[in-house]
Design a protein that fits this description.
By secondary structure, the protein is mainly alpha-helical. The chain contains 22 helices and six strands. About 2% of the residues have low confidence.
Length: 497
């Protein structure tokens, strides 16, 4: 018998899209009314299937709609997306999606995800230009020599720094830029691609899962729940430190095994990734001269400028993409690359990440099918009905798994917050716990499932370094189970003490 080969990321996502298409024939259609604040007109717009109704932007309007959120959360920009209105769910005429919708979903997904797709392609072009200059070869060789005997510091440093970005401003999609750059560094340290992937992806995931001041999750969720974002902050800090410590120890144990015996690598015998092929071709004779140092400085500054822009200047994908494009051009000038060679190298680098771009588009297409089939709100409605009459300890842990399940259908953290918090947070009052517990369940549930969620970023991340999803599941499952148990324990303690 031929050896079974685990499906590619594209096949997995197409299969999921097909199953979701079938769900639109089974799950009843329905939706909640939503409320949107118009800052220019200073009015509320209530949006339903019957149309829109404009209301005065007052606390009285919110109270009548049973939205227990202070008015200033809307007027100061804390809540900037339409939120669901409690007790307004209604069944609608079914809108099952057919074969045509299934076929068109990846195309529509690519169009909707054009912002992140262009970011990925431009980053690919930047990497192509860097490879052309030889700066990567010289820089990685220099770093490998400096880290000799202390390679474990690389694991700790990368994981902690990226987790810091995740917990403060939601560093997630931006980490796509780090894989082609840092994976060769981990390989130079005698680790495998899985170690580099784990440090980058898990750093971002744990940081985002335990967000402390992240405006795209904890702040917007707290606003939508009607509480101050600092409520429950101490518990989230404890969770962050605990989960990050466990994760780093887990990565270090695996990394040490690989370093001592390369055959213990989960990727042994399948080491054909772009990263390791590039590593084998490194020119170790190149020295870090002034020009190459300047190129590496420009390259590093591109990421520093991006991080400052996102965290301080409210930048998003257009500004981030433009930053990397400008960085590529500056590196081309400093490296004295001819115009024709520049275009060729840039295009070749972008082409190497084209498969990743398609994966992102197909994943977004799954959300398109759910939205068109009107089943996302139905899932929310049934999920909110599950917890009635529960003990508060059981309730808290059930909410954790409810949010983990909902994150498959609503992978956006900010989207999940504004859609679910007005519905879910009042449930905390019925079992006599603080609403910050619901905010925490939302964060931890989404964050835990994010580690394996195929509609998230994991498949795109794996595609960059050409590692199969089955290998990732084999690596992550022990840690995944430990993190679930730890999260459940800390959540339970938080509602009783």
């Amino acid at each position: 018998m031929k050896r079974f080969h685990f499906p590619t990321a594209q096949t997995i996502l197409f299969t999921i899209a097909g199953l979701v298409t079938l769900l639109t024939w089974i799950v009843p259609a329905g939706e909640y009314d939503t409320l949107n604040y118009n800052s220019e007109e200073r009015t509320f717009e209530r949006i339903s299937s019957e149309g829109s109704v404009y209301l005065p932007a007052t606390q009285e309007s919110l109270d009548k709609l049973d939205i227990q959120v202070p008015l200033e959360k809307f007027t100061n920009g804390g809540i900037y997306k339409p939120i669901s209105i409690p007790n307004t769910y209604k069944s609608l005429e079914a809108k099952p999606q057919g074969f045509a919708a299934f076929v068109k979903s990846p195309v529509r997904g690519i169009i909707e995800a054009a912002d992140i797709i262009f970011l990925v392609l431009i980053i690919g072009g930047l990497i192509g230009i860097m490879n052309k200059t030889g700066a990567f070869d010289a820089g990685i060789s220099w770093l490998a020599n400096k880290l000799e005997g202390r390679e474990y510091l690389l694991i700790i440093m990368v994981t902690v720094l990226i987790a810091a970005g995740g917990t403060t401003f939601g560093l997630a999609e931006e980490t796509m830029a780090f894989f082609p750059i840092l994976i060769p560094v981990f390989l130079a340290a005698k680790y495998d691609e899985m170690v580099g992937l784990a440090c980058i992806f898990l750093g971002s995931a744990i940081g985002s899962m335990c967000s402390t001041i992240n405006p795209f999750s904890v702040i917007i969720a707290s606003d939508a729940a009607g509480i101050n974002w600092t409520t429950g902050l101490n518990g989230r800090i404890v969770m962050l430190l605990t989960c990050l410590f466990i994760t780093i120890i887990y990565i270090l144990r695996y990394a040490n095994r690989v370093k001592k015996d390369p055959k213990s690598s989960l990727l042994y015998g399948e080491r054909e990734s772009t990263a390791i092929n590039h590593f084998k071709d490194l020119d170790h004779s190149l020295k870090l001269n002034l020009r190459l140092k300047l190129i590496l400085f420009i390259f590093s500054m591109s990421f520093i400028v991006m991080i400052i822009g996102v965290s301080v200047l409210d930048w998003w994908f257009v500004e981030m993409t433009a930053t990397f494009l400008v960085g590529s051009i500056l590196i081309g000038f400093v490296g004295k690359i001819k115009e024709t060679d520049f275009v060729e190298s840039f295009s070749k680098g972008a082409a190497e990440l084209l498969g990743v771009a398609f994966i992102i588009g197909i994943a977004r297409g799954v959300s398109v099918i759910m939205d068109d089939g009107l089943i996302s709100d139905t899932m929310l409605y049934y999920a909110s009905s599950v917890t009635e009459g529960m003990n508060k300890g059981v309730f808290t842990n059930v909410m954790l798994f409810v949010y983990a399940g909902l994150s498959f259908f609503i992978p956006s953290s900010s989207g999940m917050a504004v859609l679910t918090m007005p519905i879910m947070s009042p449930l905390a009052d019925s079992v006599q716990i603080g609403r910050e517990i619901i905010v925490n369940c939302y964060q931890y549930g989404m964050g835990l499932f994010y580690l394996i969620n195929p509609t998230g970023l994991i498949l795109a991340s794996l595609a960059i370094i050409k590692v199969g999803f089955d290998k990732w599941l084999k690596f992550i499952m022990p840690l995944f189970i430990v993190l679930i148990l730890v999260t459940m324990a800390l959540l339970t303690i938080s509602v009783y003490f």
